[in-house]
Specification:
4-stranded antiparallel β-sheet, alpha+beta, disordered N terminus, 25% strand, single chain, 8-stranded mixed β-sheet
Length: 431
């Protein structure tokens, strides 16, 4: 990869944001190559060693003060530029255990050992490679443009977002206490989605992403020979009843207009077709925007699991373990309106309102931990021609989305838009 950097100049007066971005934006070919390389070499959560090293080396080369291995493989780069506000920009780094089927010439063919010791395919199926590349480019733009702003800029590269664990791990490891970092005045981040065309940024105040709870339910039975089920208590049958019954929570227990999702994404049991196992495991993801709905969903899941186990004569109550949690992402109102004005002025017709999604993020933990405002926006990634054609035919829902084996954001104008959005957001709140 050949790198071309822009040079720092010292204009006599402050430029408008559009002029700053156009003047100081680095040549993006380097970042396009970086994106392809990261996409082709994805890393699972808590194993983001190479990606973290790429980001750290880049920030060090630019002149940021870099602190590594925060909460595992997380890192920050700090650029102090006189007195003024402190702004934190965040990108996540981890990939998913998905076998890529995009057909791209830079598609991932990588496998890694997961936390359970299994060799699995790995893919950037959620666009974190876009996030890393855009933040690296924005870091260079803002470094070059430091004559145009004052304050402190923090670029944070976070591990383990897919486990909704990385943000909390960085906070717990002293993110805001160990590195002489003034607590940021605002936390900013973005996420690429192919439900928007490339070139679009989508922002709204208030709730935009749901809270998430991960649950594991172990159902206990009595194992034995598959030919003699009457001598056994079959946990597979009981767990199957739980899965079916869970589908009634949202459709029959939530009030109309309330939003909730209960999905069983993993069901594991047994070792052979002729053996009834001693237990079966279910793994669930639960989504909600309202804390009261969240409590209702969790209570209903526990009630159904226990009742079905009682009905099935289980030898003991099910074990229900919370494996993950992140709060809803609720954009700060007044700050979001300020940034929306900047986006609307710069991106014009490509600035739109974000649709609230039942997906989840741990991004807000970085702000909630220090009681600071935060803003999270959507970045379009779908090829504009394909998106327009899909919209014309009413098939937007058929575009491969996040966590899909076919998820393939187009490189440009996605990277340029994401770079500009991060830089513009930082400039909006820096001095």
């Amino acid at each position: 990869m050949t790198r071309v950097s822009c040079s720092l100049v010292s204009p006599s007066s402050k430029k408008q944001h559009q002029e700053i971005l156009n003047h100081f934006r680095p040549a993006l070919a380097f970042y396009e190559d970086t994106y392809r390389s990261i996409h082709q070499n994805p890393e699972l959560s808590q194993q983001e060693e190479a990606t973290s090293a790429i980001a750290a080396k880049h920030l060090e080369h630019l002149g940021y003060s870099v602190h590594k291995h925060i909460g595992g493989l997380g890192l920050i780069g700090i650029l102090r530029n006189g007195s003024g506000p402190t702004v934190l920009l965040r990108a996540d780094m981890d990939a998913l255990p998905v076998l890529e089927q995009t057909g791209l010439d830079y598609a991932s063919k990588k496998t890694m050992e997961d936390a359970n010791g299994n060799q699995v395919p790995v893919m950037h199926a959620c666009g974190h490679d876009v996030h890393v590349s855009c933040l690296m480019a924005a870091a260079e733009l803002l470094y070059a443009a430091r004559s145009e702003w004052t304050g402190t800029l923090v670029c944070l590269f976070q591990p383990a977002e897919e486990l909704v664990a990385g943000a909390q791990a960085m906070v717990d490891d002293g993110l805001y206490t160990k590195y002489g970092l003034v607590k940021p005045d605002i936390i900013l981040g973005q996420h690429v989605f192919c439900l928007y065309k490339a070139g679009v940024v989508a922002l709204r105040p208030g709730p935009i992403l749901a809270a998430v709870d991960g649950l594991k339910i172990r159902v206990f039975g009595k194992g034995g020979h598959g030919s003699m089920p009457s001598n056994c208590i079959d946990p597979i049958v009981i767990a199957s009843h739980i899965v079916v019954r869970l589908q009634t929570i949202v459709s029959r227990e939530l009030e109309p207009g309330k939003i909730g999702v209960v999905t069983c994404g993993k069901f594991t049991a047994g070792t052979a077709s002729n053996i009834i196992p001693d237990y079966a495991d279910l793994e669930l993801t639960v989504r909600s925007f309202d804390p009261k709905v969240q409590e209702q969903l969790l209570d209903s899941i526990a009630r159904i699991a226990r009742a079905e186990c009682d009905a099935g004569r289980c030898p003991k109550a099910p074990e229900i373990t919370n494996t993950a949690h992140a709060p809803a992402t609720v954009n700060s109102g007044s700050e979001s309106r300020i940034l929306n004005a900047s986006f609307s002025k710069y991106f014009r017709d490509n600035a739109t309102s974000m649709i609230p999604l039942s997906g989840s993020e741990d991004f807000s933990i970085l702000a909630r931990a220090i009681d600071r405002p935060y803003i999270f926006w959507g970045l379009g990634g779908c090829d504009p021609v394909k998106w327009d054609e899909a919209k014309k035919n009413g098939k937007i829902g058929e575009i491969p989305g996040n966590h899909s084996a076919g998820f393939a954001p187009v490189i440009e104008p996605t990277l340029r838009t994401g770079t500009d959005a991060l830089a513009l957001a930082a400039l909006t709140f820096l001095g």
